[in-house]
Write a structure and sequence with these properties.
alpha/beta; Metallo-beta-lactamase, Chain A; five-stranded mixed beta sheet; about 35% helix
Length: about 300
């Protein structure tokens, strides 16, 4: 009897070992969360992947992080920051409310200060759907009982830190949303624009979160004039740009507005305007927009022009 019991135990153990091995070796459908690092200065990095571009600014007292990516990317982002510096994250600055820029907030330590424009702080509590984008389910901040929401806000300007560690925040007006913050690192002559300048493309005009296709061109022009002593601009989703690129982007958006205005004056429909519009020849480096983005932007502007 004892021999049979021992044999049964060995068989069970072997079966368990095989099951565990199979579970470990089972391929996962989830892709690894890879973050690429672009070093701009010894103390300033751009981290790409998992949503919007994240800036990491290492100061004497800790790390300032600008934007925290998609849901589930907070922990990988923190891990990558720890590879760059042993200093703790002290501050998160969110450029705007969109889920691919703020969701990682909830995975950072609760003592990290979160800063945003006052309109963005209000919108983050609601996490509204984004115009022209498939709705996201739930509210990540409600699900985490308010952890990661912005507690410190500004209206027009705000400076954080001093000397070489100073960070200046500016608001120049509506565009991508109604709370687009421009984050400037004066000592490094660099700024982070978020998605009001996501790259050389047709911007996403999020009317549901206060965005404006009528105002965005003027807002971008104000930013180009107001960003003093800035050489490099970190975009929301593309490579670094210059202030000259920003000025050109302002003109590009004004030209798009003018085309929609002309179409409206001629009595043309949103579909007509969208299908007939092409990128003006002088904007050679601009990406062709998806048809859905183009039509959505035309509709947003027509709605504003009523």
């Amino acid at each position: 009897m004892r021999r049979i019991t021992v044999l049964m135990a060995l068989v069970a153990a072997a079966a368990l070992s095989v099951a565990v091995k199979a579970a470990v070796e089972q391929p996962s459908n989830e892709k690894p969360k890879l973050i690429e690092v672009d070093k701009l200065r010894d103390n300033l990095f751009v981290l790409r992947g998992g949503g919007g571009n994240t800036a990491v600014f290492v100061t004497a007292d800790g790390v300032v992080v600008v934007d925290t990516k998609l849901p589930g990317w907070g922990a990988p982002l923190l891990a990558k920051i720890k590879e760059l510096t042993p200093k703790p994250v002290t501050t998160i600055i969110n450029t705007h409310t969109h889920f691919d820029h703020v969701s990682g907030n909830v995975e950072f330590p609760a003592n990290v200060e979160v800063i945003a424009h006052e309109n963005t702080a209000a919108l983050m509590k609601e996490m509204r759907s984004v115009t022209g984008v498939a709705p996201q389910s739930g509210n990540i901040f409600t699900e985490h009982k308010g952890v990661g929401l912005a507690k410190r806000t500004f209206t027009d300007t705000l400076s954080v830190g001093k000397g070489a560690d100073q960070v200046d925040l500016h608001y120049f007006g509506r565009g991508h949303t109604n709370g687009d913050a421009w984050v400037v690192f004066p000592s490094l002559r660099t700024a982070h624009a978020g998605d009001i300048f996501s790259g050389k493309n047709l911007p996403l005009l999020d009317a549901n979160n206060g965005g404006s296709g009528v105002a965005i061109g003027d807002t971008l022009a104000k930013a180009a004039a107001g960003l003093k002593n800035v050489d490099t601009i970190i975009t929301g989703h593309s490579t670094q740009m210059t202030v000259a690129d920003l000025s050109e982007y302002a003109d590009f958006n004004k030209a798009f507005l003018a085309a929609v205005q002309e179409g409206k004056k001629a009595g043309r429909s949103a579909d007509d305007i969208a299908t007939s519009w092409t990128i003006p020849a002088k904007y050679t480096a601009y990406s062709a927009p998806a048809a859905s983005r183009l039509k959505s932007n035309v509709e947003v502007i027509l709605g504003e022009l009523k």
